[in-house]
Design goal:
homodimer; Alpha/beta knot; 11 helices; rRNA_Methyltransferase (chains A, B)
């Protein structure tokens, strides 16, 4: 494709990139923003997501030839000078590589579970509202070969710009779905033969002694509140034993330890 | 102590809190900023650091009585309304609890090593310039009972405001020191009988198979570059095995896995 030069920040062809930060908060009607070379590469390689356009700082174009070769021939690639980029995005975009992707139609949790292999590891975030933590959980899930992320309806969107960036693109790689009926979801996993472990500082089993079967669901709660009592009562609870004077671990760090332990 | 009401953001008694973000970047002549209730509690309980003053939003004072009881009787506690707090700090301070602490005289690495017990676990960050990562490494070090952090001279200051906050105060709890002569430092640890493990994606031993002796030093490098080749050649290298398609782990997550593995 031939890059298209844009000089006016208000050019309608780059309207989707205007005021990126504010637009994140307001939602973007089925679209998301991918940032940086690694994430762009994953977006262009994805079979689940489609890129609608790319916006690149002129001095970054040279390093992107190999990545851009993966783009469809008719995908618009807009090239801008630094000042124009900042004026479009509404703040200083030092990375200089942006793309708009289109979200897929949300999967029902059940159909995502149908598609998983006989041996499966799924991550189940509950109430994770912080985009950093969500992104890190996806990154760790990808690093340790989790097959899917199934989250409850109170979690934040993993396709929020910052979550994708922190995930280093894992949010575009690992299939995910949401569920609203938590009791129904745990019952469904029982029927499908999943071990269901809830990570909790007050868990009954030390994770060093926890052994998984063929199918495992790992539930992660928020740092402050943790998982709801009703879930803890229902599931097997697993703890990461910590130092007595300082038993505080970020949920992303806890997910790294647990996923590493249960990965095969 | 009796709280002192401040109504003028330019009152000289709160000058140390002015434009907090910019001042972080410029350094603060032997002082640091502690933020939030948990960190303030650790500062007031510390034998290594002294608080110089406290600045609190008026509506937070009620919840702090127990923490403030740990303060010396002559420690000034300034109380302000929300607008005054924001005008002093230079941005919206929703936490509403700040304190200025005084740094201790830096320890030479050797005297810190002298003070460690016969069985010791130390963390050795090399080139960690990101305050989030530094804070997370301290938090994980505290959670898994590390005795000290010894960092090379290219690391960032763990007493930077954001690093302390991300560490949830662990930066005030775990003793730390810097070294400049890396070769001399590794030789020193050899003499003191430390196992020296370098965490690296290309490490020779899978961490699951790594066994520590009485004294262990765990080296952590940056995410992009990793540890310098000279160090990797010199030390035992340990890897965290990851998924083939996505072998990318944040250094904080890697430190959590390794410290959990080696903690006792």
């Amino acid at each position: 494709m031939d890059p298209i030069r844009i000089d006016d920040p208000r050019d309608p062809r780059v309207a989707a990139y205007l005021d990126i930060r504010e637009r994140d908060l307001a939602g973007r009607q089925g679209r998301f923003v991918a940032e940086g070379k690694v994430v762009l590469d994953l977006l262009l390689s994805s079979r689940r997501f489609t890129a609608e356009s790319i916006l690149i700082l002129e001095n970054r174009l040279g390093g992107l030839e190999e990545v851009l070769r993966k783009a469809q021939a008719d995908l618009p690639v807009y090239v801008v000078a630094g000042g124009v980029m900042d004026a479009i995005a509404g703040f200083h975009m030092h990375r200089g590589i942006l793309a708009i992707g289109r979200k897929e139609t949300p999967h029902p949790a059940g159909s995502l579970l149908d598609a998983l292999p006989a041996q499966a590891l799924i991550v189940v975030p509950v109430g994770i509202a912080n985009h950093d933590n969500m992104g890190s959980i996806f990154r760790n899930a990808a690093a340790f070969g989790a097959d899917a992320v199934l989250m409850d309806g109170t979690c934040c969107d993993p396709l929020y710009r910052k979550a994708i960036r922190v995930s280093v693109g894992a949010a575009l790689k690992i299939p995910f779905a949401s569920f609203t009926d938590t009791a129904g979801f745990t019952a469904e996993l029982d029927r499908r033969g999943y071990d269901q472990f809830a990570l909790s500082p007050r868990g009954r089993i030390d994770i060093r002694d926890a052994r998984r079967g063929e199918r495992l669901a790992l539930y992660l709660g928020t740092e402050g509140e943790g998982l709801p009592e009703s879930l803890l009562a229902r599931l097997q609870t697993v703890r990461i034993t910590m130092s007595k004077g300082f038993d505080s671990l970020n949920v992303a760090a806890a997910s790294a330890i647990a996923l590493h332990h249960f990965s095969r």
